[in-house]
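ok new one. same drill as before - structure tokens go in, u give me an amino acid for every spot. 345 of them this time. try not to just spam alanines like last time pls lmao
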């Protein structure tokens, strides 16, 4: 596939990368700092070419992408081997470079972020590896061996997504989920890596049983010294407070932009500056104004704008400070230098 053919689908003719379900252009918010998508399933995109998605993300200012890989659920159904998965990433990064070169010829360039010294997105695509609660029953010795093999890759920056899911789509026994969760937490401790958590309560469970149990397990096993984030936060302030007290980052995605997500927005206002990060969880939960479309990493730009605006309206911090915090926190979680410019005196 040539870069030119991919660019045919960038819809650059009217100057916009995105259009809503009615074909109306959706201007992308201009970021006030580099953007990070700390959780995006690049290999699960169905309607978007992964290379095109990387190019679009770079064009809107995304400078970090973390791709979760599930050794129990994705092998061998999607990937035949660790080498095949890593080759997939390398190949699409190379094609994305071609796309960006041709986009530049058309006058579309990525934000420069003068003075930051941050890497290009295509030099900053990483993976976290872990068995999702859906596949906890399959987290056997072979899955653990594959996890270790993938975590030895230079692209690997953490263990995840791991945790507990008591929701309607998971039939795995709670005891089996707990065992897989504990074993993978111990692996993160052993390898000194951060973890990304997937926690879902049963429908209508006002007691947030899965979250409470996960927090208890983290207290017993210890939060990895390298860090932890509560991926895809869709809960209450009370849940956020529990994980904040454990020193966990809280990751906000497209759900925070939905009209009925007042509880999520209240939590993001009260999340301490040092713990807040952004993600897409693509291809799921595209943010407003693109809700209903297949989500992709570039859409984190809409999430970051919402987070910055809501916190500013609440008087918590300025949009510039929020954008800086989102980038700085993502870098801290995954052990990367933020390259943040010095503030003027």
């Amino acid at each position: 596939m040539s870069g030119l053919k991919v660019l045919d689908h960038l819809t650059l003719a009217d100057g916009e990368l995105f259009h809503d379900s009615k074909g109306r252009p959706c201007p992308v918010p201009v970021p006030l700092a580099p953007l990070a998508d700390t959780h995006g399933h690049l290999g699960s995109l169905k309607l978007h070419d992964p290379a095109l998605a990387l190019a679009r993300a770079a064009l809107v200012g995304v400078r970090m992408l973390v791709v979760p890989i599930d050794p129990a659920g994705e092998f061998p159904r999607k990937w035949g081997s660790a080498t095949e998965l890593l080759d997939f990433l390398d190949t699409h990064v190379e094609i994305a470079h071609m796309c960006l070169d041709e986009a530049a010829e058309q006058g579309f360039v990525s934000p420069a972020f003068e003075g930051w010294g941050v890497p290009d997105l295509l030099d900053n695509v990483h993976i976290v590896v872990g068995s999702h609660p859906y596949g906890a029953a399959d987290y056997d010795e072979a899955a653990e061996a594959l996890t270790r093999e993938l975590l030895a890759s230079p692209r690997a920056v953490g263990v995840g997504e791991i945790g507990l899911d008591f929701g309607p789509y998971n039939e795995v026994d709670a005891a089996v989920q707990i065992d897989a969760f504990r074993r993978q937490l111990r692996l993160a401790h052993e390898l000194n890596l951060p973890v990304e958590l997937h926690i879902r309560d049963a429908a209508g469970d006002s007691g947030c049983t899965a979250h409470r149990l996960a927090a208890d397990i983290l207290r017993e096993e210890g939060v990895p010294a390298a860090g932890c984030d509560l991926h895809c936060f869709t809960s209450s302030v009370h849940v956020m407070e529990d994980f904040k007290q454990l020193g966990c980052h809280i990751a906000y995605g497209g759900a925070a932009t939905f009209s009925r997500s007042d509880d999520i927005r209240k939590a993001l206002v009260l999340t301490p500056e040092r713990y807040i990060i952004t993600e897409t969880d693509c291809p799921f939960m595209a943010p407003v104004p693109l809700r209903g479309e297949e989500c992709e990493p570039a859409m984190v730009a809409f999430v970051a704008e919402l987070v910055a605006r809501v916190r500013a309206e609440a008087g918590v911090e300025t949009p510039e400070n929020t954008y800086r915090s989102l980038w700085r926190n993502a870098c801290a979680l995954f052990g990367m230098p933020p390259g943040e410019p010095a503030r003027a005196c």
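Residues 121 and 277 are 17 Å apart (CA to CA). and btw The radius of gyration is 19 Å.
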